[in-house]
Amino acid sequence: MTPTSEAHVPVRTCVGCGRRGTPADLVRVALVDGVAVVGRRAPGRGAWLCGPECLADARRRRGFQRAWRTDVPSAVLDELAEQLAAHLARHGTVDEQGASPGSADPNSR
Ligand SMILES: [Zn+2]
Fold this sequence. Notes:
This protein is an alpha+beta fold. The chain has a single domain, classed as Hypothetical Cytosolic Protein, Chain: A, CATH 3.30.1230.10. It contains three helices and five strands; from the N terminus they run E-E-E-E-E-H-H-H. The strands form two sheets. The chain has a three-stranded antiparallel beta sheet. A hairpin with a 6-residue loop joins strand 1 (about 10-15) and strand 2. The longest helix is centred in the last third of the chain and has 18 residues, at about 75-90. The radius of gyration is 14 Å and the shape is globular. The chain starts with 11 loop residues before the first strand and ends in an 18-residue tail after the last helix. The chain binds zinc ion. Zinc ion (ZN) binds near residues 14, 16, 19 and 50.
């Protein structure tokens, strides 16, 4: 086990269940100005999640706190749950393939 030349396929780990997958398999969530933002392009530190089903585990395990290295108010994660649901409804799948030029609504409010 000497990963000298790691394969060029990036591997992410779900902060909920610990499953490993490629960025295409997982949803990225970043903390931007104290708000959880779903999306691969969101700036800042990212936490990765298989999907909404892992959110509860992630909260229990404090996976987001670890990934973002900061304390996360539960209200932020409540809102994240809604965002995830909306995100999946919009894309139909967690795979957004980084190719959604029209989704310019980081602050649709
Ligand atoms: Zn998971």
